[in-house]
Design a protein that fits this description.
- The N and C termini lie far apart (60 Å).
- The strands form 3 sheets. A 7-stranded mixed sheet has the order 8-4-3-9-10-12-11, with helices on one face.
- The protein has 2 domains: 2-94, Orthogonal Bundle (Chemotaxis Receptor Methyltransferase Cher, domain 1); 105-298, 3-Layer(aba) Sandwich (Rossmann fold).
- Helix 3 packs across helix 6 (87-94) and helix 7 (105-121) crosses helix 8.
- The chain is of the alpha/beta class and 299 residues long.
- The protein has 12 helices and 12 strands.
- The protein has helices at 19-23, 28-42, 51-65, 70-77, 80-85, 87-94, 105-121, 142-157, 172-180, 193-199, 215-218, 253-264; strands spanning 2-4, 12-14, 131-136, 163-169, 182-184, 200-202, 210-213, 221-225, 239-244, 267-275, 288-292, 295-298.
- The chain binds S-adenosylmethionine (SAM).
- S-adenosylmethionine binds at residues 42-44, 95-99, 103, 137-139, 143, 169-171, 174, 226-229, 245-247, 276.
- Residues 42-44, 95-99, 103, 137-139, 143, 169-171, 174, 226-229, 245-247, 276 line the site of S-adenosylmethionine.
Length: 299
């Protein structure tokens, strides 16, 4: 598909890079429609100051679809066909996926040195046969794999136990990346060297500079798509730990309270919750007591 860029003296450029798309802006009416929908569908608040960011993120979709205006995009998105084919792409681009291996390392120290020894000394509160951890809002998998590395190490060094890490996210695209367990080599720099050697394999094609999580560890991490606003975690065994970090920061207080109460339901009493360092439950009516900064236990 080709179009003429009128400002450049008739030079023909491929439509996806056409200047017209670059200059397209979102009307307040369309912004309102979209931000209301994103809030009700995902819980994410998009205040007017984020309009430019929303425009920039959705521009990729307009380009991809060959749509010339946000009005047209909005009509397509809310059509039966759009809700079927486009909605998940819209979710992929409006959600923020920043993550890292061993992000906020004090959490992993607390997990290894305090939470796991406490849980293991009681033979799994809730009576399960294995330790279950939920990485809620797992993005591309760096967080659940970091958790699995720690569980595997503690299981070797402290006391043998079975474990499972459930990794969920609303974005289909990040779940797919997590499932493959393939990352660029520099992504694993935060992983201590001996653990890098043990839990990651370098790709044979050295020009690619990719690594893959070893099959034994990948088998311990199960990825599923889950939207906190619409779904419940349906677990048939006790859940012992939840990592829900850098997720609720995108929600307003009312939604934070509702979602925290919802995700806490399958957590066994005495189970641990890890939030991100800029997140707080202060003022929220949730059954948690702090045990360390941003780390809580369910009461
Ligand atoms: C910034 S990432 C955090 C990743 C990881 N927890 C960390 O701290 O490194 C936030 C993740 O929350 C997910 N998310 C946002 N809204 C969600 C919702 N309503 N349900 C489930 N996941 C959601 C996003 O798709 C994104 O991958």
């Amino acid at each position: 598909m080709f179009a003429i860029n009128e400002r450049s003296s008739g030079i023909v450029v491929p439509f996806p890079y056409n200047q017209d798309i670059h200059d397209t802006w979102m009307s307040d009416r369309v912004f309102h429609r979209l931000s209301k929908f994103i809030h009700s569908k995902l819980g994410i608040k998009v205040p007017p100051v984020k309009k430019t960011m929303l425009e920039a993120r959705l521009r990729k979709r307009l380009r991809h679809l060959g749509i010339r205006s946000y009005d047209e995009y909005c009509d397509y998105l809310f059509s039966p066909e759009g809700l079927q084919d486009e909605l998940h792409h819209m979710i992929d681009v409006v959600t923020t996926h920043k993550t890292d291996f061993f992000r906020e390392p004090v959490h992993f120290d607390y997990l290894a040195q305090k939470a796991l020894p406490a849980l293991l000394s009681k033979d799994f509160p809730g009576g399960g046969k294995r330790l279950v951890v939920w990485s809620a809002g797992c993005s591309t998998g760096e967080e659940p794999y970091s958790i699995a590395v720690v569980l595997s190490e503690v299981s070797r060094k402290l006391k043998r136990f079975q474990f499972l890490v459930l990794a969920t996210d609303v974005s289909r695209q990040v779940i797919e990346t997590g499932r493959t367990g393939i990352y660029e080599e520099e992504k694993i720099e935060p992983v201590p060297l001996p653990l890098r050697k043990k839990y990651f394999l370098k790709s044979r094609d050295r020009s690619k500079r990719l690594v893959r999580v070893v099959p034994g560890l990948r088998a311990k991490v199960i990825f599923r798509q889950l939207n906190f606003m619409e779904d419940y975690l349906d677990l048939r065994e006790p859940l012992h730990i939840i990592f829900c970090r850098n997720v609720i920061i995108y929600f307003d207080r009312k939604t934070q309270e509702m979602i925290i109460n919802k995700i806490l339901r399958p957590l066994t009493r005495g189970g641990y919750v890890f939030l991100g360092h800029s997140e707080t439950i202060h003022g929220l009516d949730v059954p948690l007591v702090p045990v360390a900064p941003t780390i809580y236990q369910k009461i």
